[in-house]
Design goal:
234 residues, alpha/beta, Rossmann fold, 6-stranded parallel β-sheet, 6 strands, 34% helix
Amino acid sequence: MKIGFFGDSFCATLDKDWGGWPTNDIWPTYETYIKKIQKHYQAEIVNIGQGGSSIYDSILIQLTPFIQEKRIPDVCVFVWTSKDRLFHPDIRHMCFSQVMSESNTGPEWDAARQYFRYLYSDELVELQTKGVLSYFDNTILPLFPKETKIIHLWSFHHMWRYTAEYHYRWKNGLEIRPALSLVSSLDGNINGGSVLNDPDWNHLGGEKKNEIVFNWIQNAIDNYSTGKLITNEL
């Protein structure tokens, strides 16, 4: 079985790497939820996500080669990120925090800062996001092999309103809620909704959080039904 993960930093790490540090109480050992999925299904994991990337990156860069080469994975797990991230084919981490950081220099970063300062419209970006996800759902996903299992998750809850950013209700594939950032925040340090409260791999530090997400995805794969919505309690 081949399982692909397409998305942002919530699905960007298969194995932890402590950089040679020994595991102990300070540097505990645990498996990421992606590693748990790999071991449980004895699966080949393909295309780990890209930190800081946009929904367009997930489609155009991460997924498109699999479509073009007709090698769609048996299971495709999409982790849909924040709507306001910008797409660049080479600079793939143009999320708002990186754009507004003066440490990132160059004409591309300058242009992105000017966009957010003078042109950004939340209403327009929401409309664009709904449009591209609808196109992806109704035009691209129907081209997948019928036996492919498609799993949709969401990355973020709103940074100020503490509500999840569910921009679209999927017709093709099984959708899982709530947003992964709420799992990330289970330690209680929500920090304004930012995933920086948990800087660990996939923003899910520790066994508990990874076991939760593993169980969500395992349940979705084993009880798959396209068009289904599963809303889990935390």
